[in-house]
Design goal:
Number of helices: 4
CATH architecture of the largest domain: Alpha-Beta Complex
Shape: globular
CATH superfamily of the largest domain: Nucleoside Triphosphate Pyrophosphohydrolase
Oligomer: single chain
Largest sheet: 5 strands, mixed
Number of strands: 11
Low-confidence stretches: none
Mean pLDDT: 93
CATH class of the largest domain: Alpha Beta
Distance between the termini: 29 Å
Amino acid sequence: MNEDKLNRIEELMDELKVISYDEHDVMCNSSFIKIKSGEYRLNNGKCITRERVTKRSNGMDAVVIFAINTNNEIIMVVQPRFFLPTDKKVTIEMPAGYMDSDEGVIDAGKRELLEETGYSSDKFYVVDKYYPSLGYSGESISILLAYDCLKKSDQDLDEDEFVNYFEVSLDELEYLINNNYIIDATTKLAYYEGINYLKKNNLLDVVGGSNV
């Protein structure tokens, strides 16, 4: 990028950066989330008020796993999503979940994959990290790739957690995406980022070839 343009972009960012803020808890009866309201002063002298959603424990950061078994199949999960404006209120996604406060990203990915599907792998890699909802949350989601996954155990779900899983070829996964069986933004991004990672690292054979 042209250096002058980059400097201009940095000036625009500097004008709107937060230089101080004050937050307080808002009354909320939820056992899962809490809400903070805050006043944030910008470098341009303006002050704005925003609400922020956080979890009551363990932070908000999460992981999603593009998991491939030894048969070159991608491991997918099905679970209810109650707030979807659809009749079934259920989605197909890649395995995912929140990190515990004392976990690293890879450890969280291994735990979530094992709990939701019973699959395990020692070949886990961090592909990317993004922030899905900056308008009201600082939650980050790390995209992980795991391959040579082996079935090690039954699912180990929480009492109020209901997850089914299945395996698909890469062509079948693309069919599900292209025909709106998969509408989850995190899964779509993990798919595209995962494929790019496989291409860059000459690992396309782990999903059955190089025709992608």
